[in-house]
Amino acid sequence: MSEEIERPLTFIRDNAGKYASAKADRVYLEQFRKSKKAILVVEAEKAGIKTVADREAYAYSHPDYLGLLDGLRVAVEVEEKLRVLIDVARLKINLYQTQQADSRAERKAYGA
Predict the structure, then answer these.
(1) Nearby residues of 4 by Cβ (< 8 Å), 6 or more positions away
(2) Measured between alpha carbons, how far is 91 from 28 in angstroms, rounded to an integer?
(3) Between residues 82 and 1, which one has the greater pLDDT?
(4) Minimal CA–CA distance to 88: which of 1, 23, 15?
(5) 75: which residues sit within 8 A by CB, 6+ positions away?
(6) Nearest partner of 41 among 67, 64, 60, 63, judged by Cα
(7) What gap in Å lies between CA 3 and CA 63, rounded to an integer?
(8) Rounded CA separation 112/108 (Å)
(9) pTM over cut 0.85
(10) CA torsion sign, 28 to 24 to 92 to 108?
(11) What is the C-alpha to C-alpha distance for residues 100 and 102, in angstroms, rounded to an integer?
């Protein structure tokens, strides 16, 4: 197998686990964000904050919630970077396959 095809295949193999982990982190944080909001709304209620709107404002502005959003931002960035790099590797593989098919067709057309 040529290096043209081996390098992108190796890259995909070596980064598939990292991509899966990054995606799992992002999905977890997206789901936990809902739980964290609920926890903070209950905390606000126990602290005597009366209205639902004020409890939600408390939750959304809480440092823990804002920190979770920062973590989510980082998780999305890591996942998207790996996804793009893997997509580029796939494109290289597709390009190589197309070049090989074109080369075979050309050899067949000229009887080589």
Answers:
(1) 92, 96
(2) 29
(3) 82
(4) 15
(5) 22, 25, 26, 29
(6) 60
(7) 49
(8) 6
(9) no
(10) negative
(11) 5
Q: Provide the 10 A C-beta neighbour count for residue 32.
A: 14
pLDDT at 111 over 80: no
pLDDT tens for residues 48-93? 999 999 999 999 999 999 999 999 999 999 999 999 999 999 999 9
Q: How big is the chain by its Cα radius of gyration, in Å? A: 25
Tokens 């809902």 appear where?
34
Tokens of 58: 């408390």
Quick one: tokens of 106?
A: 């050309």
In the numeric block, the tokens 């804002």 are attached to: 66
Q: Quick count: other Cβ atoms within 10 Å of Cβ 55? A: 19
Question: And the tokens for 5?
Answer: 């095809």
